[in-house]
Amino acid sequence: MNGFLNSIVSWLRAGYPEGVPPTDTFPVLALLARRLSNDEAKAVACELVRRGEFDDVDIGVLITQITDELPSPADVERVRVRLAAQGWPFDDADEAGDPA
Predict the structure, then answer these.
(1) Is 92 a residue whose pLDDT tops 70?
(2) FRET label pair with 69: which of 21, 42, 63, 79, CA 20 to 30 Å apart?
(3) What is the pLDDT of residue 61?
(4) Are residues 74 and 27 in the same domain?
(5) Is the dihedral angle over the CA atoms 13, 16, 20, 26 positive or is it negative?
(6) How many Cβ atoms are within 10 Å of 31's Cβ, its own excluded?
(7) InterPro entries of this UniProt entry (predicted)?
């Protein structure tokens, strides 16, 4: 079992030593945030490169279309990192607070 899954199981065992009651199953699962998979991040990056010009909003919209959920900032950043690793030029001057 990987470390992430092990930490979830440990957390559940500490909070529910007799097991999770049926009435708590869905609320507990809702607390476990979904993370964009590597394959999904790759699919988003490939589609954005195919389109050409895009920004963080476009990244977020495409993630939402693929996952049917709002993207976390970490998900958007993972796609940006994947694109940057492939040489995609990002204009981060606006994000750094530099006036245009």
Answers:
(1) no
(2) 21
(3) 92
(4) no
(5) negative
(6) 8
(7) DUF3349
